[in-house]
Amino acid sequence: MTTTNTNSDNNSITAVEIGKPRGGPKVRTLRKDKWWIQPLLTTIGLSLFVLYGIWAALRNGDYFAGLLSGTSARNYLSPFYSPCVTHGCQYTTVPIIGTWYNISPAIVILIFPMGFRMSCYYYRKAYYRSFWFSPPACAVTEPHKKYSGERKFPLIINNIHRYFWYAAVVFAAILTIDAVNAFRFPNGQIGMGLGTLVFIINAVLIWLYTLSCHSCRHLTGGRVNLFSKAPIRLWFWKKVSVINPHHQLYAWLSLIWIAFTDFYVYMVSSGMIHDPRFF
Amino acid sequence: MADLNVKLWRGDENGGELVDYNIEAQDGEVVLDVVHRIQATQAPDLAVRWNCKAGKCGSCSAEINGKPSLMCMTRTSVFEPGETITITPMKTFPIIRDLVTDVSFNFKMLKRVPALKPKPREADGTYRMYQEDIERGQEFRKCIECFLCQNVCHVIRDHEENKTNYAGPRLFIRYADLEMHPLDTNDRLSLLQDKMGLGMCNITKCCTEVCPEHIHITDNAIIPLKERVVGDRYDPLVWLGKKIFRKSKAKTTVTE
Questions:
Q1: How many domains in chain B?
Q2: B119 and B219 together in one domain
Q3: Searching chain B, which residue's CA lies closest to the CA of residue A25?
Q4: pLDDT tens digits for B197-254?
Q5: Where are the domains of chain A?
Q6: Domain boundary, last residue among B83, B101, B119
Q7: Which of B83, B228, B234 lies closest to A223 in CB terms?
Q8: Measured between CB atoms, does A154 come within 8 Å of chain B?
Q9: Looking at beta carbons, which residues of chain B come within 8 Å of A234?
């Protein structure tokens, strides 16, 4: 049955008719390529990270390898626990939360990077395709009968992505300080271990992911229509526009590397491995 | 050379089926050539829309082995020897006959786009724009209106009922082009969010994947528009900034 809906538009020229018969066989897809591989790999990758993240956040131990831990003379604080803001921390960055808090310090801070990634334009694509099958791949019919997009709760929350970006900048700065701290060795010495390199790469990848963000691109100059009158904003906008197309790559690299950094600290802190010192 | 096995959708609004054709393969052909040879030798009543055969007119859009593509830009050499090539009309639009669909939905949505409303001319009677002011929109004007992006978008492909409230990717780049125009004074953001379904796009980027002109529809048009809407509606800091600095609205809001 064909119905006409003018969508409160009085001009009948623009009235859209819906329900007319379509062509082609009524099958989910005619694609013959392995379209399911990408969503499958994404599901596996994100699930593995979530499982690792839960283990790392609830571990509540061996997240600092350094001057105070006694197992190794290094200054490595796991990015899952940085900044460490509780009194019970193995290495307290800023003691904001009192001794009454006695569960993992990671839980109070991970909401920010998690919110940043959950509302990220790339990860939205990833989980809509892989977990919600909306759609699982291009030209593959989704299983849902109704669709309202990001207009209603809870998905409308994704619109506050830029606020998580503000927090992400703070976190990237803190992780940079952690990378600098990773050069600190006992008795005021400056040195570099393999872990220092791990921390530097971690900070670089986090910055690349944060600065290539679509909200960052918008904040630098997305709203500007007259770039000729805003040359500084144009300069920043162009720089962000260079790395923005690689946002997906940085999202994955930084995700994998932050987990690896945490695991490296765990291995050094728990005495599983000895962190080699370069100088 | 080996033969090509081709399945073509034959039918109209009363129904149809995939019909098998077998035709000799020739070097250097594209799918549209094969369809034309079938039309010339085996199915003279086959309906197919085409024009330039150079990927610039956007007429021969179809689905080849389930992938929305231009028939004139898909070489037959990309298929494995012996592989059956299935060609069907664009799924999202009403069928007219065989491979031809009714794409008037897109032009109706185009008519809903509030036109450019330029600011007053300068004292010498001219408009002035600089290259950096207009180069973002130049990418959007590469669009050949093949409507593959509209066809692949699941918002209307899988949910026919959304067609009344959803402009679609092709129109979003038109809105972006106008919204970013240095001379324009119309504000279409409320219209976009409330009646053109910008919030329905969940940025899964299929439109970008199928665009034969390689326009970065999602990254350069849809997401920037979404971010502008966020600034207007959901960002208290932007609201506060406008209040403190008393920024007057330079644009006229258009809601219909």
A1: 2
A2: yes
A3: B17
A4: 999 999 999 999 999 999 999 999 999 999 999 999 888 888 888 778 766 556 777 7
A5: 34-269
A6: B101
A7: B228
A8: no
A9: 132
Tokens representing A107? 């839980």
Query: Are residues B76 and B177 located together in one domain of the fold?
Result: no
Distance CA B165, CA A217 (A): 28
Q: Return residues 196-225 of A near B (CB < 8 Å).
A: 214-215, 217-218, 222-223, 225
pLDDT in tens, A2-35: 555 544 444 566 788 899 999 999 999 999 999 9
Whether residue B143 is found in the same domain as residue B111: yes
B12 and B66 in a single domain? The answer is yes
Q: Phi and psi for A142 in degrees, rounded to 5? A: -80, 155
- Asked whether B116 and B178 are in contact (CB, 8 A), the reply is yes
**B88, B179, B234 member nearest A30 (Cβ):** B88
Q: Two tokens at B145?
A: 């209106």
Amino acid in position A89 = C
Tokens standing for residue A147: 């669709």
Q: Which residues of B touch A8 (CB under 8 A)?
A: 195, 256
Rg (Cα) of chain B, in Å, rounded? 22
Query: What is the domain extent for residue B128?
Result: 104-253
**Domain CATH number, residue B55:** 3.10.20.30
Are both B176 and B238 inside the same structural domain?
yes
